[in-house]
Q: What sequence folds into this?
């Protein structure tokens, strides 16, 4: 009898908790959507996305996200350009060159890197990268788009490496067999067999890395200078969407235009991420068929 | 001859990449450990921040406790809900539609950057519900952030179990709850715990969600869910970005890193124990 009670209790608890979690999560998604869409009733979508200036607190308020969105895209693009060749090289090494005994420890070490919190990378950026940039490029302050891009590149390396290496490892056996029987060198095989056939894995890694980079807040905020200017050079100060949210929400009164615009910016970030992931999803679907 | 040159190029590229990655990582960790070690003392670990501006002297004790409190409370919330969801998906869900719906919602939440969750936590918990900057508001926000990690990892752990094992249990007329506690849980407990721990570590290192919802520059060690707390990542952020005390920032970073590495050590042991069991 008591067993039956326990069974019922367990079933109810599991179902209730799951329902609770789902309700909360759906509520969160709807809440974010609702709060962000208000801004579009006041400003047209075009003005909001492409307006040239972001001046939320001046007399003559302007809420144009163009410099902010450009900064977000430029930062993650830059990070990807720097990180991709290095990650693909490292992934190739791990999956095809590395002695088997070393492979697991190296992979764990790289996974460990992915677990270092972003504020620590930001701190390293402040104490190592910025002074380095000031010295190399003779800048008065190192805070810049370039500093953000380099730091982000370091941060997304482990994500791209593990995704790419995983997909490469899956096909190791086929390639080794083929190329051994053809008598070509190991390096020839990497260049002409492995690299061309693993481009889905590489793109998967790139997409994951870019999504990470776009939503990254702390590390970027600590090294980019946070001025809402249009990024015109690598050495300019910029302010991407996450920094904008983190730095401005505290001073925006609830329900004000500024507040809704910040939510709107968060919404734009979500849409950007959605577009990237959709692109990847479609790509993968097309390859499967 | 030309082929050889190309081979050499590939070889160079691969070795250059891996050496760069490993070298850079060792440099990052080494830099923090070497400099952090110098600025850590017993006093630093057990006293509160002092000095003017605050944080130039004294220690980080309230921040250590605050981070642990945030980690534990958010872990409790997220693991209760996350494990329940995973168990529901594995043992109870019979409709493909509900299954896909839950997966979709979990994926959606997992895809939201932590700063946007922080934004939600700030407007909803801190302002609308009037919680103010508090341990509870921060832990709630963090638990939303790690809920997908716990759910996905637990589900993965459950699906790795031999289907036959569960089927045999069911066909003997054993109830679902008994099957869970006596067949599923003993088999997969290490993986479920390591998933939960992974989420907790992630929560303890996160800054963006708590800077808007819980963390302040100075607070006593947490005694109530409704008071603001200090937290290591936020303290590090303030120390470094306001250039208050780079030396204390090194110490904070080192303590944070060591706490996380300890947790990763546990995760490693949990997973390895299972591998050894299997052999």
A:
């Amino acid at each position: 009898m008591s067993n039956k009670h326990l069974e019922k209790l367990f079933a109810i608890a599991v179902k209730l908790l799951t329902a609770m979690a789902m309700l909360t999560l759906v509520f969160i998604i709807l809440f974010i959507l609702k709060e962000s869409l208000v801004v579009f009733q006041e400003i047209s979508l075009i003005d909001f996305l492409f307006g040239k200036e972001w001046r939320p607190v001046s007399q003559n308020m302007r809420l144009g996200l163009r410099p902010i969105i450009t900064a977000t895209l430029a930062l993650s693009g830059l990070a990807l350009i720097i990180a991709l060749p290095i990650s693909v090289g490292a992934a190739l090494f791990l999956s095809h060159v590395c002695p088997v005994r070393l492979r697991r420890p190296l992979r764990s070490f790289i996974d460990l890197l992915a677990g270092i919190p972003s504020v620590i990378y930001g701190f390293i950026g402040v104490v190592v990268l910025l002074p380095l940039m000031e010295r190399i490029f003779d800048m008065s302050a190192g805070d810049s788009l370039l500093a953000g891009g380099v730091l982000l590149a370091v941060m997304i390396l482990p994500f791209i490496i593990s995704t790419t290496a995983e997909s490469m490892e899956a096909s190791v056996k086929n390639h080794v067999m083929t190329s051994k029987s053809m008598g070509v060198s190991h390096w020839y095989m990497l260049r002409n067999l492995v690299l061309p056939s693993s481009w889905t894995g590489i793109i998967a890694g790139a997409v994951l890395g870019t999504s990470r980079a776009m939503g990254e807040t702390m590390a970027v905020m600590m090294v980019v200078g946070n001025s809402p200017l249009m990024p015109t050079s690598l050495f300019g100060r910029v302010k991407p969407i996450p920094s904008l949210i983190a730095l401005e929400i505290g001073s925006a009164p609830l329900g004000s235009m500024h507040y809704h615009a910040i939510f709107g910016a968060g919404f734009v970030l979500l849409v950007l991420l959605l577009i990237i992931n959709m692109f990847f999803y479609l790509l993968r679907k097309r390859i499967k068929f | 001859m030309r082929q050889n040159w190309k081979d050499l190029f590939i070889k160079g590229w691969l070795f250059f990449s891996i050496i760069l990655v490993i070298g850079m990582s060792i440099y990052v960790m080494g830099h923090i450990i070497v400099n952090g070690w110098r600025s850590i003392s017993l006093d630093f670990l057990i006293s509160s921040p002092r000095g003017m501006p605050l944080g130039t002297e004294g220690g980080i004790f309230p921040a250590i406790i605050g981070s642990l409190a945030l980690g534990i409370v958010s872990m409790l919330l997220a693991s209760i809900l996350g494990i329940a969801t995973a168990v529901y998906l594995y043992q109870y869900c019979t409709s493909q539609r509900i299954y896909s719906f839950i997966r979709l919602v979990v994926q959606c939440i997992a895809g939201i950057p932590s700063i946007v969750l922080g934004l939600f936590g700030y407007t909803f918990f801190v302002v609308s519900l009037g919680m103010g900057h508090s341990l509870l508001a921060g832990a709630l926000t963090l638990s939303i952030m790690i809920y997908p990690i716990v759910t996905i990892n637990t589900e993965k752990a459950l699906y790795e179990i031999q289907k036959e094992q569960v089927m045999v249990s069911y066909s003997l007329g054993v109830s679902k709850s008994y099957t869970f506690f006596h067949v599923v849980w003993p088999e997969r407990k290490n993986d479920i715990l390591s998933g939960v721990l992974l989420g907790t570590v992630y929560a303890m290192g996160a800054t963006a969600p708590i800077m808007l919802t819980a963390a302040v520059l100075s607070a006593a060690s947490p005694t109530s869910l409704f008071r603001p707390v200090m937290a290591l990542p936020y303290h590090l952020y303030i120390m470094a970005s306001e250039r208050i005390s780079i030396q204390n920032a090194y110490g904070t970073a080192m303590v944070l890193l060591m706490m996380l590495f300890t947790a990763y050590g546990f995760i490693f042991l949990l997973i390895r124990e299972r591998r050894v069991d299997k052999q």
Observations:
- Residues 2-39 of chain B form one domain.
- The CA atoms of residues 167 and 179 of chain B lie 10 Å apart.
